[in-house]
Protein backbone atom coordinates (compact mmCIF):
# COMPACT_ATOMS: atom_id res chain seq x y z
CA UNK A 1 0.00 0.00 0.00
CA UNK A 2 1.63 3.23 -1.10
CA UNK A 3 1.02 6.68 0.39
CA UNK A 4 -1.31 7.82 -2.39
CA UNK A 5 -3.48 4.71 -2.04
CA UNK A 6 -3.69 5.18 1.74
CA UNK A 7 -4.81 8.79 1.36
CA UNK A 8 -7.35 7.74 -1.28
CA UNK A 9 -8.94 5.17 1.02
CA UNK A 10 -8.89 7.58 3.97
CA UNK A 11 -10.40 10.44 1.93
CA UNK A 12 -7.28 12.62 2.22
CA UNK A 13 -7.65 12.78 5.97
CA UNK A 14 -5.39 15.30 7.66
CA UNK A 15 -4.37 13.05 10.57
CA UNK A 16 -2.75 10.33 8.42
CA UNK A 17 0.96 10.05 9.30
CA UNK A 18 3.46 8.11 7.15
CA UNK A 19 6.92 7.36 8.54
CA UNK A 20 9.72 6.23 6.20
CA UNK A 21 12.62 4.24 7.56
CA UNK A 22 16.27 5.15 6.67
CA UNK A 23 15.60 7.33 3.59
CA UNK A 24 12.76 9.37 2.01
CA UNK A 25 11.68 6.49 -0.20
CA UNK A 26 12.52 3.82 2.32
CA UNK A 27 11.55 0.23 1.82
CA UNK A 28 9.61 0.12 5.10
CA UNK A 29 6.78 2.51 5.90
CA UNK A 30 4.60 2.95 8.98
CA UNK A 31 1.06 4.28 8.58
CA UNK A 32 -1.15 5.45 11.44
CA UNK A 33 -3.78 8.05 12.37
CA UNK A 34 -2.35 10.51 14.85
CA UNK A 35 -5.75 11.07 16.51
CA UNK A 36 -6.20 7.37 17.30
CA UNK A 37 -2.85 5.59 17.58
CA UNK A 38 -0.23 6.06 20.28
CA UNK A 39 2.68 7.83 18.58
CA UNK A 40 5.05 6.91 21.41
CA UNK A 41 4.86 3.27 20.29
CA UNK A 42 6.02 4.28 16.82
CA UNK A 43 8.99 6.39 17.92
CA UNK A 44 10.03 4.58 21.09
CA UNK A 45 9.48 0.94 20.09
CA UNK A 46 8.86 0.24 16.41
CA UNK A 47 11.34 2.56 14.69
CA UNK A 48 14.28 1.74 17.06
CA UNK A 49 13.69 -2.00 16.52
CA UNK A 50 13.45 -1.61 12.74
CA UNK A 51 16.68 0.41 12.58
CA UNK A 52 18.53 -2.62 13.94
CA UNK A 53 17.76 -4.54 10.73
CA UNK A 54 19.31 -4.10 7.26
CA UNK A 55 15.98 -3.01 5.82
CA UNK A 56 17.15 -3.02 2.19
CA UNK A 57 17.80 -6.77 2.26
CA UNK A 58 15.47 -8.32 4.86
CA UNK A 59 11.91 -9.43 4.15
CA UNK A 60 8.61 -9.20 5.93
CA UNK A 61 9.28 -12.38 7.91
CA UNK A 62 12.37 -10.88 9.55
CA UNK A 63 10.46 -7.66 10.30
CA UNK A 64 7.64 -9.65 11.83
CA UNK A 65 10.06 -11.59 14.01
CA UNK A 66 11.95 -8.47 15.09
CA UNK A 67 8.75 -6.67 16.13
CA UNK A 68 7.42 -9.75 17.91
CA UNK A 69 4.08 -9.56 16.10
CA UNK A 70 1.75 -12.58 16.02
CA UNK A 71 0.71 -14.06 12.70
CA UNK A 72 -2.89 -13.05 13.44
CA UNK A 73 -1.83 -9.44 12.83
CA UNK A 74 -1.06 -10.07 9.16
CA UNK A 75 -3.03 -7.95 6.69
CA UNK A 76 -3.39 -8.93 3.02
CA UNK A 77 -5.89 -6.38 1.66
CA UNK A 78 -5.76 -2.59 1.49
CA UNK A 79 -9.32 -2.33 2.80
CA UNK A 80 -8.42 -4.43 5.82
CA UNK A 81 -5.34 -2.30 6.50
CA UNK A 82 -7.42 0.89 6.43
CA UNK A 83 -10.04 -0.72 8.69
CA UNK A 84 -7.34 -1.69 11.21
CA UNK A 85 -5.98 1.86 11.17
CA UNK A 86 -9.44 3.30 11.83
CA UNK A 87 -9.55 0.99 14.85
CA UNK A 88 -6.32 2.41 16.36
CA UNK A 89 -3.77 0.08 14.71
CA UNK A 90 -0.35 1.00 13.30
CA UNK A 91 0.19 -0.53 9.86
CA UNK A 92 3.73 -1.64 8.88
CA UNK A 93 4.31 -2.04 5.13
CA UNK A 94 7.37 -3.65 3.56
CA UNK A 95 7.78 -2.92 -0.12
CA UNK A 96 7.24 -6.02 -2.25
CA UNK A 97 5.83 -8.14 0.60
CA UNK A 98 2.70 -10.24 0.20
CA UNK A 99 1.20 -8.90 3.41
CA UNK A 100 1.58 -6.13 5.97
CA UNK A 101 1.44 -6.00 9.76
CA UNK A 102 -1.23 -4.30 11.90
CA UNK A 103 0.06 -3.55 15.40
CA UNK A 104 -2.64 -2.72 17.99
CA UNK A 105 -2.37 0.66 19.65
CA UNK A 106 -4.63 3.03 21.51
CA UNK A 107 -3.81 6.70 21.88
CA UNK A 108 -7.34 7.91 22.54
CA UNK A 109 -8.22 9.69 25.76
CA UNK A 110 -10.96 8.03 27.80
CA UNK A 111 -12.87 8.88 30.96
CA UNK A 112 -11.55 7.43 34.17
CA UNK A 113 -13.68 5.03 36.20
CA UNK A 114 -15.89 6.90 38.67
CA UNK A 115 -18.83 6.31 40.98
CA UNK A 116 -22.29 5.97 39.36
CA UNK A 117 -24.08 9.25 38.75
CA UNK A 118 -27.47 8.17 37.37
CA UNK A 119 -27.93 5.15 39.66
CA UNK A 120 -26.63 6.32 43.01
CA UNK A 121 -25.01 3.79 45.35
CA UNK A 122 -25.68 3.67 49.09
CA UNK A 123 -24.01 0.31 49.75
CA UNK A 124 -21.95 -1.72 47.32
CA UNK A 125 -19.09 -1.09 44.85
CA UNK A 126 -18.52 2.59 44.08
CA UNK A 127 -17.76 1.97 40.41
CA UNK A 128 -19.55 2.61 37.13
CA UNK A 129 -19.07 1.68 33.50
CA UNK A 130 -17.34 4.07 31.07
CA UNK A 131 -17.55 4.68 27.32
CA UNK A 132 -14.78 2.22 26.39
CA UNK A 133 -15.97 -1.30 25.62
CA UNK A 134 -12.73 -3.05 26.59
CA UNK A 135 -12.66 -1.29 29.96
CA UNK A 136 -16.23 -2.36 30.68
CA UNK A 137 -15.40 -5.94 29.71
CA UNK A 138 -12.40 -5.80 32.02
CA UNK A 139 -14.59 -4.64 34.92
CA UNK A 140 -17.01 -7.53 34.43
CA UNK A 141 -14.19 -10.06 34.01
CA UNK A 142 -12.56 -8.79 37.19
CA UNK A 143 -15.68 -9.44 39.27
CA UNK A 144 -16.59 -12.67 37.43
CA UNK A 145 -13.37 -14.71 37.07
CA UNK A 146 -15.04 -17.79 35.62
CA UNK A 147 -14.56 -19.78 32.43
CA UNK A 148 -18.34 -20.03 32.03
CA UNK A 149 -18.58 -16.35 31.11
CA UNK A 150 -18.99 -16.32 27.33
CA UNK A 151 -18.32 -13.27 25.20
CA UNK A 152 -19.64 -12.89 21.66
CA UNK A 153 -18.46 -9.90 19.64
CA UNK A 154 -20.89 -8.64 16.99
CA UNK A 155 -20.77 -5.69 14.61
CA UNK A 156 -23.78 -3.55 13.67
CA UNK A 157 -24.04 -0.60 11.29
CA UNK A 158 -23.50 -0.54 7.53
CA UNK A 159 -21.86 2.88 7.18
CA UNK A 160 -20.29 3.28 10.64
CA UNK A 161 -19.71 -0.17 12.18
CA UNK A 162 -19.98 -0.31 15.96
CA UNK A 163 -18.69 -3.16 18.12
CA UNK A 164 -21.29 -4.88 20.29
CA UNK A 165 -20.47 -7.48 22.95
CA UNK A 166 -22.97 -10.06 24.19
CA UNK A 167 -22.15 -11.64 27.57
CA UNK A 168 -23.78 -14.58 29.33
CA UNK A 169 -22.99 -17.52 31.58
CA UNK A 170 -23.22 -20.50 29.25
CA UNK A 171 -23.95 -22.98 32.07
CA UNK A 172 -26.91 -20.93 33.35
CA UNK A 173 -28.48 -18.88 30.52
CA UNK A 174 -31.31 -20.18 28.38
CA UNK A 175 -29.85 -20.59 24.83
CA UNK A 176 -33.13 -19.29 23.40
CA UNK A 177 -32.54 -15.89 25.00
CA UNK A 178 -29.03 -15.73 23.53
CA UNK A 179 -30.28 -16.71 20.08
CA UNK A 180 -33.00 -14.05 20.22
CA UNK A 181 -30.51 -11.30 21.10
CA UNK A 182 -27.99 -12.46 18.51
CA UNK A 183 -30.60 -12.72 15.75
CA UNK A 184 -32.09 -9.28 16.41
CA UNK A 185 -28.68 -7.62 16.35
CA UNK A 186 -27.52 -9.45 13.22
CA UNK A 187 -30.72 -8.62 11.36
CA UNK A 188 -30.35 -4.87 11.92
CA UNK A 189 -30.02 -2.94 8.67
CA UNK A 190 -29.22 0.59 9.79
CA UNK A 191 -26.30 2.90 9.07
CA UNK A 192 -24.98 3.08 12.65
CA UNK A 193 -25.70 3.01 16.38
CA UNK A 194 -24.46 5.66 18.75
CA UNK A 195 -25.52 4.30 22.11
CA UNK A 196 -27.03 1.33 23.90
CA UNK A 197 -30.24 3.35 24.32
CA UNK A 198 -30.63 3.49 20.54
CA UNK A 199 -29.87 -0.22 20.20
CA UNK A 200 -32.50 -1.00 22.86
CA UNK A 201 -35.14 0.74 20.73
CA UNK A 202 -34.18 -1.31 17.68
CA UNK A 203 -34.27 -4.73 19.33
CA UNK A 204 -37.15 -4.20 21.77
CA UNK A 205 -40.30 -6.29 21.40
CA UNK A 206 -42.60 -3.28 21.01
CA UNK A 207 -40.97 0.03 20.13
CA UNK A 208 -44.33 1.87 20.33
CA UNK A 209 -44.76 1.10 24.02
CA UNK A 210 -43.82 3.67 26.65
CA UNK A 211 -42.50 0.96 28.96
CA UNK A 212 -38.88 -0.15 28.58
CA UNK A 213 -38.48 -3.90 28.08
CA UNK A 214 -34.69 -3.98 28.50
CA UNK A 215 -32.88 -2.75 31.60
CA UNK A 216 -30.21 -0.08 31.19
CA UNK A 217 -27.66 0.20 33.96
CA UNK A 218 -24.28 1.78 34.62
CA UNK A 219 -23.66 -0.40 37.68
CA UNK A 220 -21.47 -3.51 37.29
CA UNK A 221 -23.03 -5.19 40.33
CA UNK A 222 -26.47 -5.11 38.68
CA UNK A 223 -25.02 -6.66 35.51
CA UNK A 224 -23.21 -9.37 37.47
CA UNK A 225 -26.36 -10.18 39.43
CA UNK A 226 -28.34 -10.41 36.17
CA UNK A 227 -25.77 -12.70 34.56
CA UNK A 228 -25.86 -14.99 37.59
CA UNK A 229 -29.64 -15.15 37.34
CA UNK A 230 -29.55 -16.06 33.63
CA UNK A 231 -29.92 -12.71 31.87
CA UNK A 232 -28.03 -11.66 28.74
CA UNK A 233 -25.87 -8.50 28.90
CA UNK A 234 -25.32 -6.30 25.83
CA UNK A 235 -22.42 -3.82 25.78
CA UNK A 236 -21.98 -1.20 23.06
CA UNK A 237 -18.77 0.63 22.19
CA UNK A 238 -19.07 4.28 23.23
CA UNK A 239 -21.87 3.76 25.75
CA UNK A 240 -21.48 3.70 29.55
CA UNK A 241 -24.80 1.84 29.93
CA UNK A 242 -25.28 -1.93 29.61
CA UNK A 243 -28.50 -3.59 28.47
CA UNK A 244 -29.95 -6.56 30.37
CA UNK A 245 -32.71 -8.82 29.14
CA UNK A 246 -35.14 -10.39 29.36
CA UNK A 247 -36.65 -8.41 32.22
CA UNK A 248 -39.94 -7.85 34.03
CA UNK A 249 -41.74 -4.72 35.14
CA UNK A 250 -41.02 -5.47 38.79
CA UNK A 251 -37.27 -5.49 38.17
CA UNK A 252 -37.36 -1.80 37.26
CA UNK A 253 -38.36 -1.11 40.88
CA UNK A 254 -35.57 -3.21 42.32
CA UNK A 255 -32.13 -1.91 43.19
CA UNK A 256 -28.84 -3.78 43.75
CA UNK A 257 -28.79 -2.08 47.16
CA UNK A 258 -31.70 -4.34 48.15
CA UNK A 259 -29.30 -7.28 48.41
CA UNK A 260 -26.82 -5.37 50.56
CA UNK A 261 -29.47 -4.48 53.17
CA UNK A 262 -31.18 -6.74 55.69
CA UNK A 263 -34.22 -8.38 54.15
CA UNK A 264 -36.74 -6.40 56.25
CA UNK A 265 -35.27 -3.05 55.14
CA UNK A 266 -35.03 -4.21 51.52
CA UNK A 267 -38.64 -5.40 51.54
CA UNK A 268 -39.79 -2.11 53.03
CA UNK A 269 -37.96 -0.17 50.30
CA UNK A 270 -39.52 -2.26 47.52
CA UNK A 271 -43.02 -1.82 48.91
CA UNK A 272 -42.41 1.92 49.22
CA UNK A 273 -41.41 2.09 45.55
CA UNK A 274 -44.58 0.26 44.48
CA UNK A 275 -46.67 2.55 46.65
CA UNK A 276 -44.90 5.61 45.22
CA UNK A 277 -45.66 4.46 41.65
CA UNK A 278 -49.39 4.12 42.43
CA UNK A 279 -49.35 7.43 44.31
CA UNK A 280 -47.71 9.22 41.40
CA UNK A 281 -50.30 7.89 38.96
CA UNK A 282 -53.39 8.41 41.15
CA UNK A 283 -52.87 11.46 43.34
CA UNK A 284 -53.50 14.28 40.86
CA UNK A 285 -56.20 12.40 38.85
CA UNK A 286 -58.12 11.65 42.06
CA UNK A 287 -57.95 15.34 43.01
CA UNK A 288 -59.31 16.38 39.62
CA UNK A 289 -62.05 13.73 39.54
CA UNK A 290 -63.17 14.43 43.10
CA UNK A 291 -63.42 18.21 42.74
CA UNK A 292 -65.08 17.95 39.32
CA UNK A 293 -67.65 15.18 39.82
CA UNK A 294 -67.54 13.69 43.32
CA UNK A 295 -67.82 16.42 45.93
CA UNK A 296 -69.87 14.10 48.14
CA UNK A 297 -66.78 11.92 48.75
CA UNK A 298 -64.92 14.74 50.50
CA UNK A 299 -65.39 15.13 54.30
CA UNK A 300 -67.13 18.36 55.30
CA UNK A 301 -64.12 19.84 57.13
CA UNK A 302 -61.80 19.14 54.21
CA UNK A 303 -64.37 20.42 51.72
CA UNK A 304 -64.43 23.77 53.50
CA UNK A 305 -60.62 24.04 53.30
CA UNK A 306 -60.71 23.15 49.61
CA UNK A 307 -63.39 25.74 48.91
CA UNK A 308 -61.38 28.45 50.65
CA UNK A 309 -58.19 27.44 48.86
CA UNK A 310 -59.90 27.50 45.44
CA UNK A 311 -62.00 30.59 46.00
CA UNK A 312 -59.67 32.79 43.87
CA UNK A 313 -58.76 30.19 41.23
CA UNK A 314 -60.41 31.05 37.87
CA UNK A 315 -59.71 27.66 36.23
CA UNK A 316 -61.54 24.34 36.58
CA UNK A 317 -59.58 21.60 38.42
CA UNK A 318 -58.55 19.92 35.14
CA UNK A 319 -56.77 22.96 33.68
CA UNK A 320 -55.39 23.89 37.07
CA UNK A 321 -53.80 20.45 37.47
CA UNK A 322 -52.43 20.38 33.91
CA UNK A 323 -50.89 23.83 34.39
CA UNK A 324 -49.06 22.73 37.53
CA UNK A 325 -47.91 19.42 36.05
CA UNK A 326 -46.48 21.21 33.01
CA UNK A 327 -44.64 23.71 35.23
CA UNK A 328 -43.16 20.85 37.26
CA UNK A 329 -41.97 19.13 34.08
CA UNK A 330 -40.45 22.39 32.80
CA UNK A 331 -38.52 22.82 36.05
CA UNK A 332 -37.36 19.20 35.94
CA UNK A 333 -36.17 19.45 32.34
CA UNK A 334 -34.44 22.78 32.97
CA UNK A 335 -32.66 21.35 36.01
CA UNK A 336 -31.49 18.32 33.99
CA UNK A 337 -30.16 20.35 31.03
CA UNK A 338 -28.42 23.14 32.89
CA UNK A 339 -24.99 22.71 34.52
CA UNK A 340 -25.11 20.80 37.80
CA UNK A 341 -24.83 23.69 40.26
CA UNK A 342 -27.13 25.96 38.26
CA UNK A 343 -29.62 23.11 37.76
CA UNK A 344 -29.89 22.48 41.49
CA UNK A 345 -30.52 26.18 42.08
CA UNK A 346 -33.23 26.29 39.42
CA UNK A 347 -34.91 23.21 40.84
CA UNK A 348 -35.04 24.43 44.43
CA UNK A 349 -35.34 28.21 44.17
CA UNK A 350 -37.43 28.14 41.00
CA UNK A 351 -39.91 25.70 42.49
CA UNK A 352 -40.37 27.72 45.66
CA UNK A 353 -40.57 31.12 43.96
CA UNK A 354 -42.85 30.03 41.12
CA UNK A 355 -45.10 28.01 43.43
CA UNK A 356 -45.56 30.89 45.88
CA UNK A 357 -46.12 33.40 43.06
CA UNK A 358 -48.75 31.21 41.36
CA UNK A 359 -50.69 30.78 44.60
CA UNK A 360 -50.59 34.49 45.38
CA UNK A 361 -51.70 35.31 41.85
CA UNK A 362 -54.70 32.99 42.24
CA UNK A 363 -53.83 30.60 39.43
CA UNK A 364 -53.87 27.52 41.68
CA UNK A 365 -54.50 26.42 45.25
CA UNK A 366 -52.09 25.47 48.00
CA UNK A 367 -53.52 21.96 48.21
CA UNK A 368 -52.83 21.24 44.54
CA UNK A 369 -49.26 22.48 44.96
CA UNK A 370 -48.78 19.86 47.68
CA UNK A 371 -50.44 17.10 45.64
CA UNK A 372 -48.45 17.79 42.46
CA UNK A 373 -45.20 18.00 44.44
CA UNK A 374 -45.90 14.65 46.12
CA UNK A 375 -46.75 13.06 42.78
CA UNK A 376 -43.57 14.37 41.17
CA UNK A 377 -41.47 13.28 44.15
CA UNK A 378 -42.97 9.79 44.03
CA UNK A 379 -42.00 9.36 40.37
CA UNK A 380 -38.33 9.97 41.24
CA UNK A 381 -38.22 7.11 43.76
CA UNK A 382 -37.96 4.45 41.04
CA UNK A 383 -34.32 3.24 40.73
CA UNK A 384 -34.62 3.25 36.93
CA UNK A 385 -34.69 6.62 35.17
CA UNK A 386 -36.61 5.13 32.22
CA UNK A 387 -39.51 3.80 34.29
CA UNK A 388 -39.69 7.07 36.26
CA UNK A 389 -40.01 9.03 33.02
CA UNK A 390 -42.71 6.62 31.80
CA UNK A 391 -44.77 7.15 34.96
CA UNK A 392 -44.56 10.93 34.59
CA UNK A 393 -45.81 10.75 30.99
CA UNK A 394 -48.69 8.39 31.80
CA UNK A 395 -49.88 10.78 34.50
CA UNK A 396 -51.06 13.30 31.87
CA UNK A 397 -53.61 11.06 30.07
CA UNK A 398 -54.80 9.85 33.48
CA UNK A 399 -55.49 13.48 34.49
CA UNK A 400 -57.37 14.11 31.23
CA UNK A 401 -59.52 11.00 31.73
CA UNK A 402 -60.24 12.01 35.33
CA UNK A 403 -61.29 15.52 34.23
CA UNK A 404 -63.53 14.22 31.43
CA UNK A 405 -65.10 11.11 33.01
CA UNK A 406 -64.35 11.33 36.72
CA UNK A 407 -63.79 8.07 38.61
CA UNK A 408 -64.90 6.08 35.55
CA UNK A 409 -62.10 7.72 33.59
CA UNK A 410 -59.52 6.61 36.17
CA UNK A 411 -60.87 3.06 36.06
CA UNK A 412 -60.81 3.10 32.25
CA UNK A 413 -57.24 4.39 32.24
CA UNK A 414 -56.04 1.71 34.62
CA UNK A 415 -57.88 -0.97 32.65
CA UNK A 416 -56.20 0.10 29.43
CA UNK A 417 -52.83 0.28 31.19
CA UNK A 418 -53.27 -3.22 32.66
CA UNK A 419 -54.29 -4.73 29.30
CA UNK A 420 -51.31 -3.06 27.62
CA UNK A 421 -48.84 -4.37 30.21
CA UNK A 422 -50.27 -7.89 30.05
CA UNK A 423 -49.59 -7.97 26.29
CA UNK A 424 -45.99 -6.79 26.62
CA UNK A 425 -43.05 -9.15 26.34
CA UNK A 426 -39.30 -8.86 26.88
CA UNK A 427 -37.33 -10.97 24.39
CA UNK A 428 -40.49 -13.02 23.97
CA UNK A 429 -41.14 -13.56 27.69
CA UNK A 430 -44.11 -12.17 29.69
CA UNK A 431 -43.40 -8.67 30.98
CA UNK A 432 -45.76 -8.91 33.99
CA UNK A 433 -44.22 -12.05 35.46
CA UNK A 434 -44.78 -13.26 38.25
CA UNK A 435 -48.20 -11.55 38.26
CA UNK A 436 -48.98 -13.01 34.84
CA UNK A 437 -48.53 -15.88 34.61
CA UNK A 438 -48.94 -16.22 38.37
CA UNK A 439 -45.90 -17.75 40.07
CA UNK A 440 -46.18 -17.29 43.82
CA UNK A 441 -42.81 -18.96 44.47
CA UNK A 442 -41.07 -16.06 42.71
CA UNK A 443 -42.83 -13.37 44.74
CA UNK A 444 -40.16 -13.78 47.41
CA UNK A 445 -37.76 -11.88 45.15
CA UNK A 446 -40.36 -9.72 43.42
CA UNK A 447 -42.65 -7.60 45.57
CA UNK A 448 -40.56 -8.47 48.61
CA UNK A 449 -36.97 -9.54 49.18
CA UNK A 450 -36.93 -12.62 51.33
CA UNK A 451 -33.87 -13.62 53.40
CA UNK A 452 -30.93 -14.64 51.21
CA UNK A 453 -31.06 -18.19 52.54
CA UNK A 454 -34.55 -18.49 51.01
CA UNK A 455 -33.37 -17.39 47.55
CA UNK A 456 -31.69 -20.70 46.75
CA UNK A 457 -33.64 -21.08 43.50
CA UNK A 458 -33.07 -18.85 40.50
CA UNK A 459 -35.89 -16.78 39.00
CA UNK A 460 -37.94 -19.16 36.79
CA UNK A 461 -38.67 -16.28 34.41
CA UNK A 462 -35.19 -16.65 32.88
CA UNK A 463 -35.58 -20.43 32.44
CA UNK A 464 -32.02 -21.07 33.70
CA UNK A 465 -30.25 -24.34 32.99
CA UNK A 466 -29.15 -24.57 36.63
CA UNK A 467 -32.21 -24.05 38.79
CA UNK A 468 -30.37 -23.89 42.12
CA UNK A 469 -28.08 -21.05 43.15
CA UNK A 470 -26.73 -23.10 46.06
CA UNK A 471 -27.52 -26.29 47.95
CA UNK A 472 -29.96 -25.32 50.65
CA UNK A 473 -29.67 -28.58 52.60
CA UNK A 474 -25.87 -28.48 52.87
CA UNK A 475 -25.98 -24.85 53.90
CA UNK A 476 -28.47 -25.63 56.67
CA UNK A 477 -26.37 -28.61 57.85
CA UNK A 478 -23.25 -26.42 58.00
CA UNK A 479 -25.15 -23.81 59.99
CA UNK A 480 -26.40 -26.43 62.47
CA UNK A 481 -22.85 -27.79 62.98
CA UNK A 482 -21.46 -24.29 63.61
CA UNK A 483 -24.12 -23.64 66.19
UniProtKB/TrEMBL annotation:
A cellular component term, taken from the record's GO annotations: membrane
Keyword Transmembrane helix appears in the UniProt entry: yes
Transferase found in the keyword field: no
Regions that span the bilayer: 271-293, 343-361, 367-387, 399-422
Xref: Pfam families: GerA
Record GO biological process: spore germination
Keywords of this entry: Membrane, Transmembrane, Transmembrane helix
Top-level taxon of the source organism: Bacteria
Family per record: Belongs to the GerABKA family.
Protein name per UniProt: GerA spore germination protein
Record organism: Brevibacillus centrosporus
